[in-house]
Amino acid sequence: MKAHAEFFESAADARVESVPLANLSVELGHFYAEDLREDEDFFVDHFRRIGIWYAAARSAYHGVTPKGRPRISTCLLVDDYFDTVEPPAVLVPKLLTAAHKAGLEIDYVVRESGCADPVPAHSDPESTEAGLSPAALVEARLLDDPPPGTTGARPPARETGWLCNGQRSGGSNGTGQEAMKRATAGWSPPAENAAVNHSIFADIELWREGPDGRLWSCAMLATAWQLLRLGVLRDKGRRVASPQPIPADLPDNWRALPLILRVNERAAPFSAYRAMTICSPKFQPIENAVRTIMQQVAVDPAVLTQITERAEGEQLTLPSKVIDRLEYLFVDTGPVRGAGPG
Amino acid sequence: MVLVLGEVQTTALRHSGGIPQGFAEAALALTAGERVRVSERPISYAVSPRTYTGVDCTIEARSGAKVRGVGTLMGRASLTGGRVLQCSVVARLEPVPGGHRRAWSHYLARLGVVETLGRTDIPGTAAAHLSADRSVSTMGMGAFCGGLVGRIQKSPVLDQQLPLRVRRTVLRWAAVVNEDAEDPKVLFTVREDGLREIKLELAAPGAIDGLLDLFEDLALHDWLLTALLSVIEQSRIGVEQPAQSVVRLRPAVDHLLHLWMPAARLDEFGQSAWKALESRPGLTRQWDASVKRIRDQMAMAAALVDRQPERAQLFR
Amino acid sequence: MLVFAASDKGGTGRSVTSCNVVYRSALAGSNVCYLDFDFGSPTAGSIFQITDAARGVRKGGLHSYLLDTNVAPTGEAKRIDVWSRSARASLRQRPPGSGKLMLFPGDEDGGEFGPDKEALRRCVHLFQALDEEFDMCLIDLSAGRSYATQLVLEATADPALRGVTARWLVFHRWTRQHIPAAGGLVYGPNGILEVGVDAGHDRERLRAAIKFVRTAVVDPDSVELSGLRPAQVAWLRDCDEDLRNLAATWQVGRSAVIGTVPLDPVLQWREQLISDDDVVARDIANSSTVEAFGELSRRLAVDDDWIGA
């Protein structure tokens, strides 16, 4: 692995900016947009249930961090992209108070729409140079999982806005049918590329063109979110969206807020070597979709090398595959009421 | 033993003159969110971000032995002097035991590597790669490379006017990293059909960029020479009047002559490899002779310029 | 420049005329190539007298270049240098100052096929790469409303080829059946114009890029017919007049014509290249035939002849 890194990446690659990293980032639950309208008691109950598992995660990381106390940060993602939610001035204090009452501290609040909006290219707020949205950065780095028989001459067939983990059923990849030659009749099943005996085929919608332009799917935005947490996204080598302190007066409009809001001054860094999500099993299909996409994101090797070397400096071992740095706890987080868009 | 395979395709950019740096950056932006790196000295040069494609296919050794390869090919494009476009593809072959393909994320954690599942005949695979003609290529590397050329050539910033018509040249290379090897050995073969092969043996791998830079630089100068010879041939020296030949030689003067700068951007290893190639096949010697031939033709045409008929042809 | 050779019916002499036109262009110093897109029955190999590719090649021809779904990692399309590979001795001596003459053969077991995204992608790449190398690429298409025709119409509408001049030669015999057929192929339903506009071409610009070539034309005034009786000549003249009116009705009249190839026994009995030697030394072909080929190859490159419809 080491030799490989040397061969493909010059060790001191000045192209990529580095990002402060915690040991672990913990996401304290998911909510459907409808749930965000619930009262404080609903959230206190939610955070109490999450708190049990959060404590378990903390103690697990105490055991495996060689030097001192692990740096652990917590975060929440607010779904303001598909639905209108209460304004930040109402919702943020409600969430913070509820978490506090449940004995938890939220360090960062992130708005989901921020994963779809262009991020200013510099952390310098004066700069007007527009960068790409985190979702667009993920899309640019998608590298399709090739079905057997794929060469550089015939790249994997792409269906616009979709990504799958194998071959779709029955000749949908536009293969030419020769005239005067019998068509091969019948249905051919889809196939997962790395199937063990049987296939679990997944076809994920990434985006769709709507009347107001491109509408990213929840799975795609969540992938960008997870990759932001792992600190592996860069725009032309620059870090994407550094956390900004919470303003004294919260605006009425979520989109007036920076992508990542630091609500706790003493918080460990937002991005981390590893990320854990604690949420209801109801969100498992979304996370499955996220993992199908993330399996096919080719993270810049220079970024990977940079993070690996820093982990080694802290005597930490990191899985070489980015997807293996994600952990989940699917637990009962209380009554989840909504059935928002998936 | 480690084997690195690659191919470089070289052609004239579809643009009437040298393009400005900003256009070069736009044309070479293969991946959103990635930088095009540019430099101006000693010659204007821009290189695209890396781009990748996944493969899962059969790799055949010269003996006909087959092995399944899974992984990614790495590609990049560069532009020299705002005029010569080069696309490169490279993959490092790494035999792994066991016959099963792994989860795709495994291969994405080692971009540019193709793992061969099972016993792999490394010298035989290198030989098959180098000896193939232009209609086939290992793992479709040639088609991937050609696809990159096509993608850049259709960039809307290019005016689509070709400065000269020359066939794309293909340089196939194989670098065998063998710890027991002594001094690096390099063998350059010119085959017909604009096909070149280079076999390199070295003890320790340097950075991949160093190798790519070397092979692209060789391919660039081989292409310049090929293009120059082709322009000279089409100028019909000796068949046409000198003034007429000089008119036909003009693309060489406008677009080629100032680009010859062997090993200008190479590291020490690259420069020593160039030096070894200068004794045989001696690219610079042939280039100098050809340039002299063009200058002689121009001098002769200039000497004849006072004679009315030639003058009319030259300045029409 | 890309030149597409099309015809509605078989037997128009499309392939043999096209081969002779590229041959004349090469003799005049241009670098030219001939692409056999007549997938059902590739014949260019036999016209150029390439012994082992008379009916296409066994492996790696254009058909498989465009369509190979097999994993065979294809690279470039196979090419044959006519100057060095023709079985005809007079061709193998490439005259000084002449240009490249390259054949891209079809496959022996090729066939027609339906729309294919991948084939289109490869076709665009092929044209783009060949245009970088050749002054003229002549693409010989299957007769009729073939998929080959649709494919190249879509390919030439691709932004990758926006700077590349594309011209069309539609071949037809000078007969009552062939004239309406040729007009229909261009202007009729599912014709070149309609399919081209669907593919994204501008109707008027495409129309201006299409010209007709009349083949096997009998000239009532030619010396060859000097032995005919006056009544026969008069009858021929009437027929010719009749055909001219018909051509005008079908919009394939004089202004849309770029070349006329006279009836020549050599072409009727054996489809082959006509060398100067065949005319001068062997006296088997007519000089007017060679002149017609030369004229067609010259006019293809004259931009003024391609302005307006």
UniProtKB/TrEMBL annotation, chain A:
Q: Origin, by domain of life?
A: Bacteria
InterPro entries in UniProt: SCO2522-like
Residue numbers spanned by region Disordered: 143-189
NCBIfam families, A to Z: SCO2522_fam
Name of this chain's protein: Uncharacterized protein
UniProtKB/TrEMBL annotation, chain B:
InterPro entries referenced in this protein's UniProt entry, alphabetically: SCO2521-like
Q: What is this protein called?
A: Uncharacterized protein
Q: What lineage does UniProt assign to this protein's organism?
A: Bacteria, Bacillati, Actinomycetota, Actinomycetes, Micromonosporales
From TrEMBL, chain C:
User: Which Gene Ontology cellular-component terms appear in the entry?
Assistant: cytoplasmic side of plasma membrane; cytosol
Alphabetized SUPFAM superfamilies for the sequence: P-loop containing nucleoside triphosphate hydrolases
Q: Which InterPro entries match?
A: P-loop_NTPase, ParA/MinD_ATPase
Name the keywords, alphabetized.
ATP-binding, Nucleotide-binding
Any coiled-coil ranges, and where? none
> Quick check: keyword Nucleotide-binding in the entry?
yes
Write out the GO MF terms. Answer: ATP binding; ATP hydrolysis activity
Q: Name one GO biological process term.
A: negative regulation of cell division
What name does this protein carry? CobQ/CobB/MinD/ParA family nucleotide binding protein
